[in-house]
TrEMBL record:
Belongs to the BlaI transcriptional regulatory family. GO terms for biological process: negative regulation of DNA-templated transcription. Keywords: DNA-binding, Transcription, Transcription regulation. It comes from Hathewaya proteolytica DSM 3090. It comes from the Bacteria. This is Predicted transcriptional regulator. One of its GO terms (molecular function) is DNA binding. Pfam families: Penicillinase_R.
Amino acid sequence: MKKLPDSELELMMIIWHSQGPVTRMDIEAKLDKSRDILPNTVLSFLSRLEDKGFIKKEKQGKINYYSPLVDEDKYLQEEGKSIFKKMFGNSLSRFVTSLYDGNAIGEEDLTELRNMLDEMDDKKK
């Protein structure tokens, strides 16, 4: 699965979190307002996403509706694995240490992680 550039990923996040198919105007209304993205640029991104097989377009009258073809969780899992391998050499301890030393996670997060690991371990038994 291809990694999406941030601009296309931003559109995919909007499409994934929408209730049903969305129009270009729906997407534009939800885009980050701090970035001035022109309607033609949004159309270009949507066209690229369609070409890559991430979305499908259905025309109803004069309006195009966009729906996801790629599952959000599947994409996030693939991206997570890629980042984990590239940045941390598949080392969970390096990953957690990096987050902890960088103050990205605290004791509460570590407790939650321990609980998750315990639950996963219990399911294997």
